[in-house]
Design goal:
The chain has 263 residues and is α/β, with parallel strands linked by helices. It has a single domain, classed as Uracil-DNA glycosylase-like domain (Uracil-DNA Glycosylase, subunit E, 3-Layer(aba) Sandwich). The protein is 36% helix and 10% strand. It has a five-stranded mixed β-sheet with strand order 2-1-3-5-4, with helices on both faces. A hairpin with a 6-residue loop joins strand 4 and strand 5. The protein is globular and about 50 Å long. This is Type-5 uracil-DNA glycosylase. Keywords: 4Fe-4S, DNA damage, DNA repair, Hydrolase, Iron, Iron-sulfur, Metal-binding. GO terms for molecular function: 4 iron, 4 sulfur cluster binding; DNA-deoxyinosine glycosylase activity; metal ion binding; uracil DNA N-glycosylase activity. Pfam families: UDG (PF03167).
Length: 263
């Protein structure tokens, strides 16, 4: 399609058009950051970036859609909910700069999938091994609650990301019910055969989807989201999250030993 026919960044059709045109994960990550398709989310993310939290008053917020993070040949994808207002929306990196990010990173580090146990800033040197982090919604939503319409408008970004990861992707860990409800239609639309009835979300729920064309299998695991509320009430603990990630990585793991020799 001629670029002159491309919908503008503020159009609901923008994610679908731009995502389909991306041939690499890097192209997709760049395209995501230009999106203005959801007016409520655009207003909120920019308002937060302007007013800022007192603890970060001297920082310049990202204030844009937050792309996925991790290698383009990942075997494991972790799908969350949306960037945090003063986390990813501030730092510009998924699961970075907030307690949820540090909780997840501590678990990934324990399993040998991250180079360090914290995720503080986009330039903190963090590296992920064999795992990529993404979300169904790429803008910080008010009260951490995207609407179903916002989820559906943003869906092409996640769909294309998983399509680009497909040659290497073997497992998906979904953090929370919102991500679960968003992911399953994406997999079905991409041709993955899902169990019937479709499994309901729950911590530790696991199923295998398969491609009827080439027989390839994709394992999907559910895990409670490491939100501050869930971690403070012990709904999800670090050992619980580590256990899910260990199962996702498999007995051989996804990468070699950690640089510190502990993995």
């Amino acid at each position: 399609m001629d670029d002159r026919d491309a919908p503008p960044p503020g159009s609901p059709a923008f994610p679908g058009h731009q995502a389909a045109a991306c041939r690499t994960v890097d192209e997709l990550d760049l395209a995501v950051t230009d999106c203005h398709a959801c007016p409520r989310l655009v207003e909120w993310r920019e308002q937060v970036a302007h007013t800022r939290r007192a603890a970060f008053k001297d920082e310049r917020y990202w204030g844009r859609p937050v792309p996925g993070f991790g290698p383009s040949d990942a075997r494991l994808a972790v799908v969350g909910l949306a960037p945090a207002a003063h986390g990813g929306n501030r730092t510009g990196r998924m699961f970075t700069g907030d307690p949820s990010g540090d909780f997840l990173m501590a678990a990934l580090y324990e399993v040998g999938l991250a180079s360090q146990p914290t995720s503080v800033a986009a330039d903190d040197g963090l590296r992920l091994y064999g795992v990529r982090l993404s979300s169904p919604v790429h803008c910080a939503p008010p009260d951490n609650r995207p609407t179903p319409q916002e989820r559906d408008t943003c869906r092409p970004w996640l769909a294309r990301e998983l399509e680009l990861l497909r040659p290497t992707l073997r497992t998906v860990v979904v953090l929370g019910g919102f991500g679960w409800q968003a992911l399953l239609p994406v997999l079905a639309a991409a041709g993955w055969r899902l169990p019937r009835p479709r499994p309901a979300f729950g911590h530790g729920v696991r199923f295998t989807a398969y491609d009827p064309v080439d027989g390839r299998e994709l394992t999907v695991l559910g895990c409670y989201h490491p939100s501050q509320r869930n971690t403070s009430t012990k709904r999800v603990t670090l050992p619980m999250l580590v256990d899910v990630l260990r199962h996702a990585a498999g007995p051989a793991g996804l990468a070699g030993p950690r640089p510190d020799g502990k993995g």
